From TrEMBL:
The keyword Hydrolase does not apply. InterPro entries: DUF6691. Keywords: Membrane, Transmembrane, Transmembrane helix. Pfam families: DUF6691 (PF20398). The keyword Transmembrane helix applies. This is Transporter. The chain crosses the membrane at residues 30-50, 62-81, 106-128, 134-154. It comes from Chryseobacterium soli.
Amino acid sequence: MTKEKDIHHQDSICINESQIQHRWYHNLKYLIVGILFGIVFVKAEIISWFRIQEMFRLQSFHMYGVIGSAVFTGMISVWLIKKFKIKTVYGEPISIAAKTFNKGQIYGGLIFGFGWAITGACPGPLFAQIGTGTFAVVITLLSAVLGTWVYGYFRDQLPH
């Protein structure tokens, strides 16, 4: 695959994206699941700045256990989807594209990790943290949005 096709692939729509059009209220289920997911994050202390600092200081296994169980669940889920050729709820086939390693993933992972260690937040829990009243995290959210925009702007010049 050429570099040009690889970049084009990043701009394309999700290959599993449904062509079915739904009414606006069809998406309320995602809002409900998101709220429930946020509650689980709060109760499990995944959004706790102190828990995240314990993880980066290697003082506690709590966050490593949560992340490890999520990775294990994801591995089993992908294996089951591939083995049994599971389809979406609308009967559309699920296709998982092969991933190739590149050095940009190292740089991105380091930047992500440093940001996570400094702010005590990664993108998922940001909204749950704001929902619990930690409004200083709004700065982290705005910084994440700005960082995403900067990446998109300079993507062609960055190592991929």
